[in-house]
Amino acid sequence: MNVKRIFGALLTILGIGGLIYAAIVFINVSGGARDIKTLVIFSILGLIFFIAGIGLIRTTKDE
Question: Is the dihedral of CA 37, 48, 25, 10 positive or negative?
Fold first, then answer.
């Protein structure tokens, strides 16, 4: 097994988890500064992890 593919899959799963958590926070947001900050942080981190994981999976060649 290729370590890069496993790491890419792990990053993708973490990214999906972060985006789902951001969606839950978005649904329950009451307008407070702390809620907005949490929403932005988890959205950005989830998106970065998801894109990095997909990129690793796509660019790693099978051996």
Answer: negative
Pair of tokens at residue 35: 């809620």
The neighbour count for residue 46, using CB atoms within 10 Å, is 20
Could you tell me the residue range of the domain that residue 37 belongs to?
Answer: 3-59
Q: What does DSSP assign to residue 28?
A: T
Position 32 confidence tier, pLDDT thresholds 50, 70, 90: confident
User: Structurally, how many domains does the chain consist of?
Assistant: 1
User: Which residue intervals of 1-63 are DSSP H helices?
Assistant: 3-27, 33-59
| pTM (2 d.p.) | 0.85
**Tell me: the pLDDT tens digits for 1-29?**
688 889 999 999 999 999 999 999 889 87
The answer to whether the beta carbons of residues 25 and 46 sit under 8 Å apart is no
